Amino acid sequence: MAQRYVRVQNQNGQIYYGLLQPSLKVLVLDAPPWLQGQPTDLSLEPDSYKILAPCAPSKIVAVGKNYVDHAAEMGTEVPSEPLIFLKPPTSIIAAIEEIHYPQQSQRVDYEGELALVIGDHTSNCSPEEAQTKIWGYTIANDVTARDLQQRDGQWTRAKGFDTFCPLGPWIVRELSPGARLQTFLNELSDPVQSALVDQMVFPPDFLVSYISRVMTLLPGDVVLTGTPFGVGPLQPGDRVLVEIEGIGRLENTVTAC
Ligand code: MG
After folding, report:
1. Phi, psi angles (nearest 5°) of residue 236
2. Measured in angstroms, how far is the CA atom of residue 113 from the centroid of ligand 1?
3. How much distance in Å is there from the Cα of 20 to the middle of ligand 1?
4. Phi-psi region of 24 (alpha: psi -120 to 50; beta: other; left: phi over 0)
5. Does the pLDDT at position 213 exceed 90?
């Protein structure tokens, strides 16, 4: 099993980066691993911490319509260059936490996505340089109030509600190019989304390079790489699970607020 890098909070409220062991103990690091955090003598027992989102980014840069079939289901062409937008860091929740269905919307969709975690100060990079700035990979759900996205014409409100960015549960360093991304709803055994991450139009190194020519990415920042075909609505009470081969499973439930 790949090394799993986590961020956790102990019962006194202290937050640590660490390595999740097969026993579910966490070996605590003295800094975020992308800032050369090293193992300490401290370890946390499985029942003594809660898992947080695996990083605390200054920003989340997301990419729209980056799979051909998804662009088609939205009734549009694939953009000729990446279509980027921001989600606020306050939209992040961890695995198991609840997505709050806002009263302003009547249509909230899941969007399972591969997330890139940036490990270094990243500005004006070529794709080759950008690849070296991608420290690791995790899973995201780019939850979207579809009706508000269409009504507003820009996406800040639709994509920006608190709890609209489930992220985690951990980071791995390597990802197979042919890894499959799948999204499952409730007890359904068939996925509602299923695609290989290498089916994306603009690949990770290109995306990070492109973004880095607009804004500086900082260590711990997150890039969401777009969702494949099969987006659909969530209802209060639903359970949504996004799985990426080689990373794990990100599961959240939906509650009315
Ligand atoms: Mg998306």
Report:
1. -55, 135
2. 7
3. 28
4. left
5. yes
